[in-house]
Each structure stands twice: as C-alpha cells, then as structure tokens.
Design a protein that fits this description.
325 residues, Beta-galactosidase, Chain A, domain 5, 9-stranded antiparallel sheet, 8-stranded antiparallel sheet, binds 6-O-phosphono-beta-D-glucopyranose
C-alpha cells in the first residue's frame, strides 16, 4: 500500500478534528489530538513538548508545574521534555540538550504508517539544527517525532534520528523521554519493574549500585539511572487507584527522579510542594551512548497507558514486543 493510501486510513495530521493547531500559552503554537472516546493530548511545537494527556474523564495524567515558564529559551517544567542530544549536563552542551528548547515544525515528509493502522490521532514533528546549533553541536541531523493518541487513549511517542552529515562523520548522543507523571501523593506510589537492577546514582556522582528486591517506594529525593531495564515498567498510584504502564522499545535505561522538598524550593519554575504530586520515570539511552554513521537512522518508541489499579502487580512481561509505529 502506498503512503498516501495508508495515511488516509488514519486521522491524518492537521486534516480533521482529531488534530488541530491553536495558540497556547504566550501565543506559542500548540497541537491538540483528540480521540473518539474523549481522551486528548496537547503538544507544543516549542520543544515538541507534550504538555497534557487527559483520559476520557478529562483527568490530567501528566504533571506540569503551576510555575512552568512557557517562554523560550527555558524548557517547560513538566509534561514530556525530549532530552537530546544529551541527557544530563555533562560537557559543554546545555543540560538535557537543546531539542527541548527549539521550535520544531510540522514534518512535511513524515514516515508512513504500517498498513493496518486505523483510528489514530497523530502529528509528525521535525527538528533540524540551525546554524547556531551547529556551532555548539557540529552535526547535521533530522529528528522526526510522531506523537500518536491510540483508540484506547494510549499515548505513543516514536523518535527517529538520522545522521545527515555530509562530512562522512558519525555522531554520538544520549537521550531520554523525560516524562513527568501526575500522582496523587508520592508517598502512596510504587514503581515495579526495576527491582534488583543496577543503577547509577546521580546523587552520588553516578556511583553504581544494585536496587533491592522490593518495588520502589519514595520517602526522599531520588535521582537514579536504572540500567538494562525491562521493556515494561509500572507506576502504581494507590490513592488514585490508577496504574501507569510504560512500554518502551530501544530504550534500555530508565531514570527515576523526584526532587523532594529542598530541591523543589531551589527550582524557580517548580512549586515548593509540587514534588508530592509528580514522579519522573524516563525511558532513556544513557549508559551506552548511541552512535550513528551518516545515513543511519535510530528509531525508538515509548507507549504510555493509564489503567485502573485492578491491574495486578507482578504481571510485568519483559518480553512483550511493541508493534506498529
Ligand atoms: C532528571 C535528572 O532527569 O532531570 C536530574 O536525572 C535533573 O538530575 C532533572 O535535576 C531536572 O532537570 P532540568 O534540567 O529539567 O532541571
């Protein structure tokens, strides 16, 4: 099936009510995706930043700080920042890379959907480096992000990074989908899927340690990079009776971050008490940086679902393979 045929089966980008572009905060362009049962997703072109994911009851599933600044060059605090071409603030590049602080465009040449895809609202975004970017990271690339809202309300992000260098040089990068989940009360939350894994502790100079055998719970600041994680991780919110399931493909690491009270107070764009209502679990590629030769493409995916907590814990299936794009 040709691209145009397969795409016409779906709710194509910016062509109908399932996807529209409007002005958001401070006049920044924002795309709204709508699914037939009422779930919605909002994505700012600034940073290709998902800032909202609401279920069919209109409940917000992502955390965005009440103090978030929607103004370049600051990254939006909350939602799903894209960390590229580096996670963290090692070296001369800005913290978590520049992709989250650049204006993306609607992709004029989006990748095709697999032929069996129907009833999805989606948008395809594109980032290419500016002359200024090339001065701080001298590599030519095309980063294509597809944000898709599935018929069951699942939120999927597919990233494709291509090396378009014409000088024959490879480039190397690290990456994270820095997802901020909204939780009722951090002390009532547990994360399953990371037990017994090795992690690098960002609070101890990336010292390597091994997690204990129980699900992870929270009573103080945490900033850990879990290594070689399973393709499925769950965040169980006891009070909300809700479980977030993160499925990921091609992203071996998972960062777990909550700033807790002291760091919360130190961040200008974060409320003092807001740490109680958020948790970042970030599908990432950090320990083993990705190297692409000219012409090579790297494709990874994260799929988020929110299910009632009748979901049984301990049922994580690390072998589940993601299908479709
Ligand atoms: C997390 C890092 O991913 O992001 C933390 O592990 C960092 O170390 C946090 O503090 C927030 O980063 P930023 O740049 O958005 O303030």
């Amino acid at each position: 099936m040709s691209r145009s045929e397969s795409e016409s089966e779906s709710s194509s980008s910016l062509e109908n009510k399932s996807c529209e572009i409007i002005k958001g905060i401070n006049g920044l362009d924002k795309i709204i995706l709508r699914e037939i049962h009422g779930t919605t997703v909002e994505v700012y072109l600034y940073g290709a930043h998902v800032t909202s994911w609401k279920n069919d009851q209109g409940e917000e599933l992502l955390f965005v700080s009440s103090k978030a600044v929607f103004k370049p060059p600051k990254a939006i605090r909350g939602g799903i920042p894209i960390c590229f071409p580096q996670f963290s603030n090692l070296g001369s590049l800005e913290a978590h890379g520049f992709a989250r602080c650049r204006l993306w465009s609607i992709d004029p040449d989006p990748p095709a959907f697999p032929p069996n895809v129907t009833n999805r609202a989606y948008v395809d975004l594109l980032l290419k480096p500016t002359e200024e970017d090339l001065k701080i990271w001298p590599h030519s690339f095309e980063y294509r992000l597809r944000v898709t809202l599935g018929p069951g309300g699942d939120l999927m992000l597919t990233s494709r990074v291509r090396n378009t260098n014409t000088d024959g040089k490879p480039f190397t990068f690290t990456f994270a989908y820095h997802t901020y989940f909204s939780v009722s009360d951090i002390s009532e939350v547990r994360v399953e899927g990371l037990e017994t894994l090795d992690y690098l502790d960002n609070l101890k100079n990336r010292e390597r340690n091994t997690e204990q055998g129980d699900a992870i719970t929270f009573e103080s600041e945490i900033d850990k990079i879990y290594l070689s994680t399973p393709s499925k991780i769950a965040i169980l919110d006891h009070e909300k009776k809700r479980t977030f399931v993160i499925r990921k493909d091609g992203l071996p690491d998972a960062v777990v971050w909550n700033p807790w009270d002291k760091k919360a107070k130190a961040m200008a764009d974060f409320g003092d008490e807001e740490y109680k209502h958020m948790l970042c679990v970030e599908a990432a590629a950090i320990e083993k940086p990705i190297t692409l030769k000219p012409g090579e493409e790297w494709k990874v995916r994260q799929e988020l679902s929110a299910v009632p907590s009748s979901y049984c814990s301990g049922q994580l299936d690390p072998n589940k393979v993601l299908k479709g794009s």
